[in-house]
Every structure is written in structure tokens, then in C-alpha cells.
Amino acid sequence: MNGSLRETEGAPESDITIDENEVKEIIESIKEAQYFDASSMAPLAPAALAAIARLRAYKPPPFKAWDRLPLSRRAAVLVLLFADRHGDLRVVLTMRASTLRNYSGQAAFPGGKADTLDETPFEIARREAWEEIGLPLDDSKIPKPFRIEHLCQLPFSLAKTALAVRPCVAFLHSDGSSGLRAASVEETMIPRLDAKEVAAVFSAPFYNFLKEKDEVKADETVPGKREDWYTGNWIDWHEGKWRMHNFFVPINNQIVSKPKVREGGQAAIAEQLDEEEEEGLMRYKVWGMTARMLVDGARIAYGEDPEFEHNTHIGDEGMIENLQKMGKLEEKDPARPDLTDSDIRTAKVAALKSTGAKM
């Protein structure tokens, strides 16, 4: 059912609010600044131009609970976008090493837990991106002519590890404003990234996270069929309906960065990927919370609903706030059990009631 929305009965409509006049002003400022896809020296495609503008204009709802969360409950991820040679947006993703405690062997954004209570979400995301994929933490150390612009933050999501996770969206520019010749992010910057704590660094077409099939460029091919891109199903989760998205990203038209030095669990996953690719693996699976964040980020950026069914709300801030009020998001204690199904169900019911929705 194309473009249809399905969620718990009586759920609120999409909570994406953006000032369209502000978007138009930002688009004009981008055109004046001549932001372009470096490899072809062409302007960003119109859809990508508008997407950057909408992300710049997006302001997430206030979330005061962050300041009350203990250190062990805080996390952030970096949603790093860049323009390909066609002027379309792609997003950087990783395959996590088996040495990482959580989500090992899964596709994910660079990111992780806070080190101190003083760190902002963007600072957490950038530090973790340095530790995991070698993206310089200090902007002055990013090779010219590349530079990073922080665009916006998306609403917090609740990880299965009971962390409040803030997606931080940024754009990796590759322009000639420094007086140097512009360079291609795909061909020059991505290979420089060192998969220091992950098994692989790859990218995916950002707009495609609203589509049921691969969108194939004139000069590219995809393995298998276009329909191999997406599958999804509804699951029962704590007395509610949640959409599980599964995307299968083609890796035949891109450079995949692997660890320069392989050790332990990192080597295990990287070598497993090598073997699977030799045997014909041509797509990496992206699913779970990462897939949901990509769908929601693309909804905001492009101002469109997906072609597939999806939950209308973005993030889990109501649930997180209620869990905190219930005293369930205190400092993690290995000697005590973490969140139970009953805890999350109670918090979810309270969040839905606060919006006037029904289970």
C-alpha cells in the first residue's frame, strides 16, 4: 500500500514541522555560496539542495530530560551526509566489529555513549566518529578542501540497551572555497577514513530510504533486482505496532573502506565480510534503530512520506521522559536488571495518553 501510514489506533499525525519560508531562504543562500558536488563541479541536485535546506531549518522539539539523564544513559550518533558525483546525497554507515559490546556485526551510524556529562550530543557523535572511523575530531585537521557543517539534531530514540540516542545530522562539504581544487568525497575522503573500531565503512543513497526499490542511475547497475532493496513487516512491541525496516544497500558501485590494521573481533567481522563478498555478497543489510532513523531523517529532509508503511511518530522522547519519571533511567548498575517489558509498556501507555492517542 503505497505511502500509507499505520500505527497504533488513534496515533497522532507526523510531528515534522518546518518553516517553508525559512527553507526557501536557505536554498537561495546555498545557491549563492556555490555548494557543489566536487567531482563534476556541478551544483547539488535540486532535491539534495532542498534537503540540506530543510535539515538546516529543522528544529527538534525541546527535550529537557537530557539534562537529567545520568552519564550511562546518554548517547549520540553522527548522520554524516555528502554529495555524490550526481549531486545526490549519500549517508555514511559502518559495519560494527564483534569487539564492540553492543550491536556487533550490524550496520550502524558512527556513534556511542557519552564520556562526560559536559559533552553535547554533537560532541559525543564527533568523538565517536573519530574513534570508530578516523574522521578528525578537530575541524582544522580535516583534509582540505573538505569541511563539516552541523545541520540539525533529530528527536531522541530509545535504544534496546536503554540509552537515549540523539541522531546528529551533518554535511561533509567538498568545495573550492579554500582556493584548492575541489575533490570527490566518494573517491578521496571515504578511502582516507580508517575503520579503526569497525569492520567496514560504506555509504547509502539517502533519498532511497523513502523508496521500496533501488533508484538506479543511468551509469550504474545494482546486484539482483531493484525490489531487493527493501523488506518490512509490522511487529508487536509492548502492546503496540512497530514497523521493522530492512534495507539492503548495494556495495558494487562504491568504495568500501576496511580496517588498515585488523585485530580481534574487528578482524573477524572484516574477514567474514571479505569471504561473503568473494562468495557473491553485494548488499549490506541495514535494519533496526539505524534503519528507522534513516527513514525519519529522510522524511524530514525531503518532505515526503515513504512508499512503504511506517510509524508516524519520530523518536521516542515521550517514552524516555516517562521512563525517567518512573525512576527507570537511573545510572546503570550491572548488579541490577535493566528495563523490563513492563517498564517500557507502562511508559509507552503514558506517552500515548499524553498525546491523546489510544493503544
From TrEMBL:
Segments forming domain Nudix hydrolase: 72-226
Gene3D superfamilies: Nucleoside Triphosphate Pyrophosphohydrolase
One example GO MF annotation: coenzyme A diphosphatase activity
GO terms for biological process, alphabetical: coenzyme A catabolic process
Stored PANTHER family: NUDIX HYDROLASE (PTHR12992), PEROXISOMAL COENZYME A DIPHOSPHATASE NUDT7 (PTHR12992:SF24)
The name this protein goes by in its record: Peroxisomal coenzyme A diphosphatase peroxisomal
CDD domains according to UniProt: NUDIX_CoAse_Nudt7
Keywords carried by this UniProt record: Hydrolase, Magnesium, Manganese, Metal-binding
